[in-house]
Amino acid sequence: MPGLHQLLGPHRPVRTLGIAALALAFLWSSLEVRRRFHALFVAGPRSDAEYPALSLAWLALAGGRLLAGIVTADRQQRAAALGIGGAPALEAFLFDLADLEGLHRAASFLALGLGLVAVGRLLRRFVAEPSAETRRDQGRAPRSRNRRSPSSGSTSKPK
């Protein structure tokens, strides 16, 4: 079984610091949401509005990381963004289904769905390679649906 130094490769210190910075940003965003709902004490039960807010904070962090990865064309940043984006999905299915009811549950899943759709659109538009069919069709002129075939009898020959 490979060790952590083998998984991180030749740029071990840089990647280790990047992973630590990402973990600290994730922890900071989580604690900041917690502080907004519990001003002086972060301990205590979660309120119903805190679950969707936590999902939105994590999706915002993932979105920022994804945009940074797209702008810099860095595949590792985009992968980190997808990893962070998986946290709200897990949180929604593990905690929101069990603890929330009614409108707060719907808001949590709506926020998750909209965030995942936005991530998918960004990846498709800026990152994904075009399919073979798309590349093949780029060389041809678009076909018109209103074009009639010569055998339909609608064309008239000049006399």
Tell me what the structure shows.
- This protein has 159 residues and is mainly α.
- It has one domain.
- The protein contains 6 helices and no strands.
- The protein is globular, with a radius of gyration of 25 Å.
- The chain starts with a helix and ends in a 22-residue tail after the last helix.
- The relative contact order is 0.09.
- The model has no long low-confidence stretch (mean pLDDT 75).
Compile the SSE list and pairings.
Layout: H1 4-8, H2 12-37, H3 50-72, H4 75-99, H5 103-126, H6 132-137
Question: In short, what is this structure?
Answer:
The chain is mainly alpha-helical and 159 residues long. The chain has one domain (11-129). It has six helices and no strands.
Arithmetic mean pLDDT: 75
Label the overall shape: globular
| Class computed from helices, strands and strand pairing | mainly alpha
Report the C-alpha radius of gyration, rounded. Answer: 25 Å
What is the assembly state of the chains in this entry? single chain
First-residue to last-residue Cα separation? 84 Å
Q: How many structurally independent domains?
A: 1
How many extended strands?
0
Number of helices: 6
Helix content: 55-70%
Order of helices and strands: HHHHHH
Low-confidence segments, given as residue ranges, are none
What proportion strand? under 5%
Main sheet makeup: none
